[in-house]
């Protein structure tokens, strides 16, 4: 009897997708660390950094993505929704970069982890995808975790944390818009709109606040904004082509490790116990929410299979 092969192509794809998600979270952390370094250490205006982030994203896409991996297109069935979605990304980026100028990287990302919970909460009124009481409790626990990070009434709440909350809300709405557009436009269209609208909207603001850097190597940091942002988002797309979102979602929380590492190595920041405790609560709430969603999907698949099997024995009408 011939030995059975142990190799599993699907398992191999999942492992590759997980590796891509780990790399993507590292890219996003590098983007935030670069933005904080430019705005905080070098005093570059936030509007200029936001503009350069989208401008170099377009350059990166034109050189590496559009000729080989992604054919650009603006033919959308919902162009105004695409424009609004792109503006949400601009708003999220601007609020996030303002907050990063004043907050530690780990503080910022700990609050930003509330995003999946906000998506679940807002999917009901916006998409008609209402959550049950289990997931409602997870959302409430996530808000408690954010309050622990901010610890109002015990310490001084930095006003920049409100900007992080605004950025988190903006990205949650951006995610919901992405899910909505997935039924109408291919990913190439959605990925084309985002950087182009960002450049279109931010160019006047970026030029009005333009400050030329004193050191030549700072120009490399300007270019790296688009590299980290464009590469990170493209890798996320590749990862989701290989594995379902439910498998990849927990690895987003690796961003806390990368952010803490960059914060310590570049800025000398050490995470506080408040940040670690609050982040743990938010992450556990997010993982519980994900587990409930997986359970609901499994029940739906079982119900569908049972209905399909039963219909095979139904007598003809």
Description:
By secondary structure, the protein is mainly alpha-helical. Helix content is 76%, strand content 0%. The protein has 12 helices and no strands. The chain has helices at 9-41, 46-65, 79-102, 105-112, 115-127, 133-150, 160-181, 187-208, 217-242, 245-248, 255-267, 273-311. It is globular. The protein starts with 8 loop residues before the first helix and ends in a 6-residue tail after the last helix. Residues 1-9 have low confidence and may be disordered.
Question: In terms of topology, how is this protein built?
Answer:
Elements: H1 9-41, H2 46-65, H3 79-102, H4 105-112, H5 115-127, H6 133-150, H7 160-181, H8 187-208, H9 217-242, H10 245-248, H11 255-267, H12 273-311
């Amino acid at each position: 009897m011939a030995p059975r092969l142990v190799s599993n192509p699907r398992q191999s794809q999942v492992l590759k997708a997980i590796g891509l998600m780990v790399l993507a979270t590292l890219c996003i952390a590098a983007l935030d660390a670069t933005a904080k370094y430019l705005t905080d250490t070098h005093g570059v205006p936030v509007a200029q950094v936001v503009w350069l982030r989208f401008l170099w994203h377009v350059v990166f896409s034109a050189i590496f993505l559009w000729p080989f991996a992604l054919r650009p297109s603006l033919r959308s069935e919902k162009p105004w929704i695409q424009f609004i979605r792109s503006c949400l990304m601009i708003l999220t980026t601007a609020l996030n970069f303002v907050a990063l100028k004043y907050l530690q990287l780990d503080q910022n990302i700990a609050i930003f982890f509330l995003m999946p919970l906000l998506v679940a909460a807002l999917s009901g009124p916006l998409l008609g995808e209402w959550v049950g009481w289990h997931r409602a409790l997870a959302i409430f626990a996530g808000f408690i975790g954010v309050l622990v990070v901010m610890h109002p009434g015990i310490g001084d709440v930095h006003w920049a944390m409100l900007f992080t909350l605004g950025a988190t809300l903006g990205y949650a709405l951006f995610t919901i818009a992405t899910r909505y557009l997935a039924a109408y436009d291919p990913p190439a269209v959605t990925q084309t709109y985002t950087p182009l609208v960002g450049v279109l909207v931010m160019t006047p603001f970026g030029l009005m606040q333009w400050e030329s850097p004193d050191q030549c190597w700072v120009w490399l940091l300007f270019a790296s904004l688009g590299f980290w942002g464009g590469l990170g988002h493209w890798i996320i797309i590749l990862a989701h082509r290989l594995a379902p979102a439910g498998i990849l979602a927990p690895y987003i929380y690796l961003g806390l490790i990368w952010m803490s590492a960059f914060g310590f190595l570049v800025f000398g920041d050490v995470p506080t116990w408040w940040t670690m405790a609050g982040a743990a609560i938010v992450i556990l709430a997010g993982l519980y929410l994900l587990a409930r969603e997986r359970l609901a999907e499994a029940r739906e698949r079982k119900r569908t299979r049972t209905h399909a099997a039963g219909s095979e024995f139904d007598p003809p009408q």
